[in-house]
Amino acid sequence: MFIKVNGIELFYEKSGRGNPIILLHGNGEDHKIFDVLTEQLSRNYTVYAIDSRDHGKSGRVKILDYQSMMEDTAAFIKELDIQNPVLYGFSDGGIIGLLLAIKYPDILSRLIISGANTQPDGIKTIYTALMKIVYFFTRSPKYKLMLTQPNISKNDLNKIEVPTFILAGSKDLVKDEHTRMIAANIKNSVLRILEGEGHASYVPHSKKLYDIISPFLTE
Known about the structure:
This protein is α/β, with parallel strands linked by helices. It has helices spanning 35-41, 66-79, 92-103, 125-138, 141-148, 154-158, 176-184, 208-218; strands at 2-5, 8-15, 19-24, 45-50, 86-90, 110-114, 164-169, 189-194.
């Protein structure tokens, strides 16, 4: 399905019945990475899996920024009158989730993020170097986004009131100390570092993710 919000046409799939949960994918992906998770969640929840702007079937833009992507999500929730959804965001989706909870403290009931960073330097140096090489040759707005954004301060994180579940792999591309900093600055948060997992090893098309997040959904 398509919906026009915040000046952009977003594609999304809706499935299941029950309390609402929104799924946001990472950079360069689309909602299809959540095919397994959506099937599992839709037994008990209404699932909205969205393609972010310039991803999947959603509208194209020349410049990407996380604030616009966050406002897309806020407008999506308001336009469809989704009442206090849970939001799960992976990587870029997690960044969008943090920004949403900062600016709109009452819009979500819970927030789950995995593999998210609040500053470009939260990513390990080797991965940043690889991103710079790719950007040099491609000039891709998606890589420019990761190299220059987000810019979320500790004071911003302190504004988050919603219960937040923070995930990262022990082998994540996000620095371990950066993930721990995020958790330390969100008052009502729980942190879990997944031993042996990378940035994405437990997320796309994975049966692992549901068992990881479902206890937080039912608390």
